[in-house]
Amino acid sequence: MNLPSPALVAQSAVRRLPRWALLLLCAAYIVPGYVGRNPWRSTDITAFGVMRELAAAPDWLAWLAPARMTSGDAALLPYWIGAWVLRVTHGWLAPELAVRLPFMLMLAGTLAAVWGAVAHLARHASAQPVAFAFGGEADPKSYARALADGALLALIATFGLAQLAHETTPALAQLFCIALLFYGLAALPFRLGAALAAAALGLIGLTLSGAGGTALIIGALVSAGVLRVRPEQMTGRRRAVVFMTLLIAIAICALLTWRLDWWHWRLELPTRWVAWRDRIKLLVWFTWPVWPLVLWTLWRWRRQILAPHHNWHLALPVLLVCVPLLSVIFGDGALDRRLLLALPGVAALAAFALPTFKRGGAAFIDSFTVLFFTGWAIFIWLMWLATLTGFPRQPAANVARLAPGFHQEWQWPGFVAALAGTLAWVWIVRWRAGRHRAALWKSLVLPAAGATLCWLLLMTLWLPAFDYARGYAAQMRQVRAVIGDGAPCVHVQNLTSAQIAALRFHGNWTTVRPSAPPVCPWLLRDTSVRPKFEAAPPSQFWQRVTDIRRPTDKNETLTIYRRKAEDAVLDAPAEN
Question: Cβ neighbours of residue 324 under 8 Å, at least 6 residues apart?
Fold first, then answer.
């Protein structure tokens, strides 16, 4: 049976969040970070390099193994999409901008899918608020829409989403696919055909994006959950159709994972406190400021979670959070990209905390949010003014020490966008203090708007600094000053995939492995603290010219060698 719901919501609390405001907030979050910047190190420019190579590949068979080119990511789908867009837009759109268009759509699709998933979950009978004795409780449609608005705001407010969702990497494709899967599973009792298509495409897309293990585990658990949890309207033939469709999708995912040799999970429980501490810190900051709401949801809905026979609205997001969370606890490598897949479920759980909030808790969240994000906005503005004018001196000196050689320049478009965002934040704070006090989604308006403001300020005022610090453009300009534009190719030795992609993009040089005798006039070798995989080039053929360090990283130093003249090579003694 259904346990009494902890949600107490009146009809006045589910007033509609204006669509224009929600869409404007999403646009202000999505566009900055995609427009006007260079590719960043290291996964961003590495993936961009793979897409450029695929787009230029004359043989379509190369599209079946892009990981062999310059990336170790076990993924196909995001590289296919990026390469196809590069081919379509070749000649009339800058490649670094063209390749980001589908990823912008993926981020927008992720936000829309999470909204739709929570809107369907909130329509379940087990998710409805308590009925009042004399009426006046929220109607199901308005209640579902209000919770969906809250979930979307919670997702935007999450700190960990900002950077990873604005990179052209398989991580964003995986996030979109798991959000699509989330929507399909949530909508099964209401829209069987569309929901099954979304769930199947989400599972297969998740596999082709490099998360085959996650797709198989989630698919298996969901299939078992369909038999046990039994959400409303899931009986008889409908349940059989859902179960068989999920099994077919799981079989396809297993076949792809096996044929492409992508099953490389290694689960190991950390034994050192340092590893546990790093994971705890990652969980805290990556899901901030939403994780306190998640804990509150787990506490207030604990009876429903412990008896999940009919509570699909809680069982599904908990499942989608637990699988990536376990991969973070027992896995290694890029843990933040694994945790990214838990954010749709985290946002949904945070939304279900809203109907159980009391006025005091909402007021505390509002006060803390205003102080937190206003303080960060003021800090970002002051640091930008310091680097632009030199006053105050200490902040400007700190930036100069961290990014030697960087000079801040005035940029009107960025300044106007940052000023508009700041004024909008002031208006939102005043609006929140004076109106819509009873709105269900009110507690997440300021966190989402504050996170969007800070991201907007960083990607407008500080975008040149981020390009300088996180990109390779400054280092490649120094390399070009030494070897010029006339070199048909350059030999590369000990360089990472990101460095090779940067040479090809910023310098437009063809990179070739070292040979004897050399065929290219220049050789670039990474001589930083990274372990030396290959011996130094033979002095018989090469003369060392200079070292060029990436300005903001002492661990990335390129040593440039010039090929000796032919007569000097003949006169030089041969090396043993």
Answer: 214, 338, 339, 340, 341, 342
